[in-house]
């Protein structure tokens, strides 16, 4: 095998020129260059692309008689220059990319501006690349990298298993009902007696009815157990999205409650049929007809208010009584589920849609060889698609993706794409309590997939999140799709201005390509092209102080829990202390009453950066030299102006006298108020003129950009032979103006005086992590504080988490919150040595209460400190030296 590889690689290695001469361009794990009139390549690291196919593609494309060239929606400058056989400088100039002070700058058609240092990271839209290709007598064709599929394209070997989501209010018996159906005992083991994440399993059912239609599996059902607390609204929405039927349980003891209305609205939003069941009929003193009437009235009220598009009052009238604990009426509910599925005539009722922008174009232009690397084999369709329910970090098995298969078959060893993540299925675990290993997962089943690989030439694997589409593809095809998506994510990180980029394959556009706050912090540290300035370091230093005295000194120097919970003396105790001590001087910590302001600390370190001390600036000006009346009456000579007059005055002055002349404060001048007003007016006038000139320049740039956009649109319609776009409406114009105003409005800086509470949070499931983030945001708004997750993520607590907590300990007490995860042995030993508290929680309400108690302590200390400072302020003003 090694001899065969040497025979393949040796001819290319002999013909390779130096990188500067041949112009190597990296595309995936291969580098391509021009030598001896043909495209040659050399291997870099991974064999995720077919070497012979890529070489054949470039060489056949160069000799092709067709003038068509296939381009994706975003084209890399390095691939475009190889297709056009020009060097980098000519390609960048043709694309209109500017180079200034070591960075490349360019714009797209939507007004977004991008900047980057490395040339291989330059991605331009299709319209810009099409204009350059037209200069070389080529006809560009738009072909999307995303695969296109339809429901009829998948081979159905076995009938699909229906997916049923069990929804309802908290403590209405959902988990107990599923335990009765599956024969398990999950409800007694739930922390706090409530469900806190999605639980999926497939079980065999026996409805006792006659055999019906065979377009779905009537012997098995995949159930999705959902939490009922109000904070898990997003989880219930995910379950309703993948479900074929939703069973809504209502307790006859409590009746229809708030979350019952919410789940009805979510099921209507996704078009899921409903089956109502009245649970807990075995309890004494229950009235079934009253609960059914209340549920019917609630459904009718939702329809009358326009909150739902369908009237569910008829289905509520037919609600079946049952007892999840005793098993009474369970078989009737399952039989009703089968009857609803028979009415739908298809399973699954919701099929994942393709993200392809050009359906059918890949098959149409399959014979074209001149194309980019990411469009090789772009006509291949995925044999299996699914939807991601949740992502977790397991202690032993690593990162697991919970996937509901919608069509096709997943086997061990298949390559997959999920979000921007790429990997190979190493293990398939049946989702449930046992986590048994399986080798094949068919349509309608749920499995936990492991095997996400680290992307080549990157520091982290791809990113995936709940709601993403899981696709099984050929190895090279899967890698190209994931690499193209990752390049798009990198392009969003390089964006400097304009509206945020939104990708069709991402389901969390509100975070803007960041799946959590902790990952957004890590993303900023991984980007070497965005160095942090000194002012940014100072803002971060001020932002992570949990509570300060107002002059930069932290309250808790050691940062222990005892210091954090220690109460500040009341004002009565302070008065007694003042009465006992005769020489008591009520001054602030770090204040010298002989100075005007607290002294600056020498050589303060800001995260490894040494900042030199500088004297405080003072407000003083040079005395104005007013001309005499005789000089004002004399006309100005044509040979000299203001510079000549100033130069003559400087030459007439004695150098010694000029050195002796001191600056004069405003307070030492007789007419200092008038001079101050004159100087302020001149400064205001200069600022106004500068702002007017800047606004005029921006308006001219906007007009020029609009003209260029119109030219590009006309060129795009001409090349792609599209119909002209309809004229823009008034509402669209107003929306565009609002977006412009929002872009020009700078983001507000975090307030310095606002208390900040740092959080180091680790969780197991990404859905639970997002829920805890929402709760922290609610607490920050309630207590008017900034609660920041300075470090966190999925998985157990390791040594790096303790190190982050030790850094935050410098500014205040910061424990490590471990929610439903464990702590590594070495991390636990290091935490004990450094005095870092690692707090474990199994119930989310306990975690929220702990953070809320911390907010209450900070608020109480803040209020008492402000009151103490306000009492001492008059005394401090009396002790100030006269000016």
UniProtKB/TrEMBL annotation:
GO terms for molecular function: GTP binding; GTPase activity; translation initiation factor activity. PANTHER family: TRANSLATION INITIATION FACTOR IF-2, MITOCHONDRIAL, TRANSLATION INITIATION FACTOR IF-2-RELATED. The keyword Coiled coil applies. Belongs to the TRAFAC class translation factor GTPase superfamily. Classic translation factor GTPase family. IF-2 subfamily. SUPFAM superfamilies: Initiation factor IF2/eIF5b, domain 3, P-loop containing nucleoside triphosphate hydrolases, Translation proteins. Pfam families: GTP_EFTU, IF-2. Residues 516-537, 571-657, 720-747 are annotated as: Disordered. Residues 571-580, 727-743 have a biased composition (Basic and acidic residues). The keyword Ligase does not apply. Residues 687-718 form a coiled coil. Residues 159-345 form the Tr-type G domain. Signal peptide: none annotated. Keywords: Coiled coil, GTP-binding, Initiation factor, Nucleotide-binding, Protein biosynthesis. This is Tr-type G domain-containing protein.
């Amino acid at each position: 095998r090694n001899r065969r590889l040497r025979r393949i690689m040796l001819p290319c290695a002999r013909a390779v020129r130096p990188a500067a001469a041949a112009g190597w361009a990296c595309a995936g794990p291969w580098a391509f260059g021009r030598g001896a009139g043909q495209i040659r390549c050399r291997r870099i690291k991974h064999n995720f692309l077919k070497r012979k196919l890529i070489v054949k593609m470039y060489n056949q494309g160069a000799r092709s008689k067709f003038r068509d060239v296939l381009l994706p929606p975003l084209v890399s400058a390095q691939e475009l220059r190889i297709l056009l056989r020009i060097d980098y400088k000519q390609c960048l100039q043709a694309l209109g990319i500017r180079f200034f002070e070591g960075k490349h700058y360019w714009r797209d058609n939507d007004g977004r501006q991008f900047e980057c240092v490395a040339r291989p990271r330059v991605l331009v839209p299709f319209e810009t690349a099409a204009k350059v290709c037209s200069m070389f007598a080529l006809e560009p064709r738009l072909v999307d990298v995303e695969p296109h599929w339809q429901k009829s394209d998948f081979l159905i070997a076995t009938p699909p298993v229906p997916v049923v989501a069990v929804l309802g209010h908290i403590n209405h018996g959902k988990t107990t009902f599923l335990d009765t159906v599956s024969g398990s005992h999950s409800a007694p083991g739930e922390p706090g007696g409530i469900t806190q994440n999605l639980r999926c399993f497939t079980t065999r059912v026996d409805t006792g009815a006659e055999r019906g239609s065979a377009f779905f599996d009537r012997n098995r059902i995949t159930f999705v157990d959902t939490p009922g607390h109000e904070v898990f609204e997003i989880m219930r929405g995910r379950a309703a999205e993948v479900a074929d039927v939703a069973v809504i349980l209502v307790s006859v003891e409590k009746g229809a409650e708030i979350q019952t209305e919410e789940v009805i609205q979510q099921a209507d939003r996704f078009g899921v049929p409903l089956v109502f069941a009245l649970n807990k009929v075995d309890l004494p003193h229950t009235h079934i007809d009253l609960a059914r009437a209340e549920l019917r009235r609630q459904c009718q009220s939702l329809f009358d208010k326009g909150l739902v598009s369908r009237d569910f009052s008829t289905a509520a009238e037919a609600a079946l009584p049952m007892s999840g604990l005793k098993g009474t009426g369970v078989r009737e509910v399952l039989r009703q589920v089968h009857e609803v599925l028979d009415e739908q005539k298809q399973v699954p009722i919701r099929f994942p849609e393709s993200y392809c922008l050009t359906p059918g174009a890949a098959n149409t232009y399959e014979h074209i060889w001149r194309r980019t690397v990411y469009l090789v084999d772009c006509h291949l369709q995925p044999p299996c698609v699914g939807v991601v329910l949740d992502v977790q970090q397991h202690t032993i098995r690593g990162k697991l993706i919970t996937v509901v298969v919608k069509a096709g078959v997943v086997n061990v060893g298949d390559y997959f794409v999920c979000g921007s993540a790429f990997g190979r299925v190493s293990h398939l675990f049946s989702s449930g309590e046992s986590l048994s290993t399986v080798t094949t997962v068919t349509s309608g089943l749920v499995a936990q997939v492991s095997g996400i690989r680290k992307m080549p030439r990157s520091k982290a694997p791809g990113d995936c999140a709940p709601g993403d589409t899981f696709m099984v593809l050929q190895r090279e095809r899967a890698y190209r799709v994931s690499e193209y998506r990752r390049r798009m994510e990198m392009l969003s990180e390089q964006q400097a201005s304009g509206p945020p980029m939104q990708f069709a394959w991402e389901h969390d556009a509100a975070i803007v390509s960041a799946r959590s706050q902790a990952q957004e912090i890590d993303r900023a540290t991984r980007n070497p092209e965005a160095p942090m300035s000194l002012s940014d370091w100072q803002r971060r230093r001020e932002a992570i102080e949990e509570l300060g005295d107002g002059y930069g000194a932290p309250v808790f120097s050691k940062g222990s829990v005892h210091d954090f919970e220690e109460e500040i003396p009341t004002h009565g105790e302070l008065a007694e202390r003042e009465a006992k001590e005769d020489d008591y001087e009520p001054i602030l910590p770090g204040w010298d009453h002989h100075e005007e302001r607290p002294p600056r600390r020498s050589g303060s370190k800001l995260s490894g950066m040494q900042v030199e001390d500088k004297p405080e600036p003072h407000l003083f000006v040079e005395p104005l030299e007013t001309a005499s009346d005789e000089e004002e009456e004399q006309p100005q000579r044509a040979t000299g102006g203001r510079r000549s007059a100033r130069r003559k005055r400087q030459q007439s002055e004695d150098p010694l006298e000029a050195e002796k002349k001191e600056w004069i404060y405003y307070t030492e001048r007789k007419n200092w108020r008038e001079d101050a007003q004159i100087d302020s007016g001149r400064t205001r006038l200069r600022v106004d003129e500068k702002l007017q000139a800047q606004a005029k320049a921006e308006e001219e740039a906007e007009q020029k950009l609009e003209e260029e956009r119109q030219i590009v649109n006309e060129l795009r319609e001409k090349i792609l032979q599209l119909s002209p776009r309809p004229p823009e409406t008034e509402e669209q114009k107003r929306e565009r103006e609002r977006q412009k105003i929002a872009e020009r409005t700078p983001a507000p800086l975090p307030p310095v005086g606002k208390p900040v509470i740092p959080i180091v949070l680790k969780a197991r499931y990404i859905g639970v992590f997002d829920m805890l983030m929402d709760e922290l945001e609610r607490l920050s708004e309630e207590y008017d504080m900034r609660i920041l997750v300075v470090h966190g993520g999925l998985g157990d607590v390791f040594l790096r988490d303790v190190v982050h907590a030790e850094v935050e300990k410098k500014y205040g007490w910061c424990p490590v919150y471990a929610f439903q995860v464990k702590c590594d042995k070495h991390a636990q030993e290091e935490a004990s040595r450094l005095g870092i508290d690692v707090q474990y929680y199994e119930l989310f309400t306990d975690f929220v209460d702990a953070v809320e108690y911390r907010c209450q302590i900070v608020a109480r200390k803040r209020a008492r400190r402000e009151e103490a400072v306000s009492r001492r302020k008059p005394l401090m003003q009396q002790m100030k030296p006269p000016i």
